[in-house]
Amino acid sequence: MTITHSGNQISCLEVRDLDWVFQMLWEQQREVVLMVGLDDMSYAEISLMLGMPVEAVMSRLSRGRERLRDVTARVRPESKPGVTST
């Protein structure tokens, strides 16, 4: 899945960066993260749609969010303690 944008709310550079970060997730994690975050689906809805237990949805979401935090922490110097940006 590739993220696209319409309008001027965010720049093409930001969209490219966001797409790159999401590509760092396993497909199964990315799918669940986007269903919760963009489609505002409940765990139960995702469970039914993907044919898996709710616990599996919750696990994929948790691991996907953790991976997003790890990846963004490594690429954003301002997120590291003691480093400031100008």
- Unreliable spans are none
What is the general shape?
A: globular
Q: Would you state the CATH class of the domain at 26-75?
A: Mainly Alpha
Q: What is the rounded distance between the termini? A: 34 Å
Mean pLDDT over the full residue set: 82
Q: Give the count of helical stretches.
A: 4
Looking at CATH, which topology of the domain at 26-75 would you report? Arc Repressor Mutant, subunit A
Along the chain, the helix and strand elements come as HHHH
The rounded Rg comes to: 15 Å
What is the count of β-strands? 0
Structural class: mainly alpha
| Beta-strand percent range | under 5%
Second-tier CATH architecture of the domain at 26-75:
Orthogonal Bundle
What's the name of the CATH homologous superfamily of the domain at 26-75? Winged helix-like DNA-binding domain superfamily/Winged helix DNA-binding domain
Share of helix, binned: 55-70%
Largest sheet at a glance?
none
Domain RNA polymerase sigma factor 70 region 4 type: 23-68
Protein name: Sigma factor-like helix-turn-helix DNA-binding protein
Pfam families: Sigma70_r4_2
InterPro entries: RNA_pol_sigma70_r4_t2 (IPR013249), RNA_pol_sigma_r3/r4-like (IPR013324), WH-like_DNA-bd_sf (IPR036388)
Distinctive features:
single chain, 86 residues, Arc Repressor Mutant, subunit A, 4 helices, 0% strand
Task: Note down, in words, how this protein is organized.
With 86 residues, the protein is mainly alpha-helical. It has a domain of 50 residues: Arc Repressor Mutant, subunit A (Orthogonal Bundle), CATH 1.10.10.10. It contains 4 helices and no strands. Helix 2 packs across helix 4 and helix 3 crosses helix 4. The longest helix is centred in the C-terminal third of the chain and has 22 residues. The mean pLDDT is 82.
